[in-house]
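Please fill in the sequence for the structure shown.

STRUCTURE ENCODING:
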């Protein structure tokens, strides 16, 4: 039960940091990069953030690589 509590505290902290980051950096245009696919047809919109996903993957990989060194 103690491990579950620690995991929930960690998850809450990560969500808090993500919320702060989204609020602080919301105007940077992340999510509307060239390479993000948007398909609009009438009343339907499909959005696939391909380039945003690639950039986030590279950034997280570099961050984890630095922490493991």
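FILLED IN BY: designer on duty
SEQUENCE:
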């Amino acid at each position: 039960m103690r491990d579950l509590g620690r995991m929930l505290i960690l998850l809450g902290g990560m969500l808090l940091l993500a919320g702060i980051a989204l609020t602080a950096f919301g105007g940077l245009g992340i999510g509307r990069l060239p390479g993000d696919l948007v398909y609009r047809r009438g009343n339907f919109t499909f959005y696939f953030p391909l380039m945003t996903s690639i950039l986030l993957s590279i950034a997280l990989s570099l961050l984890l690589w630095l922490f493991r060194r």
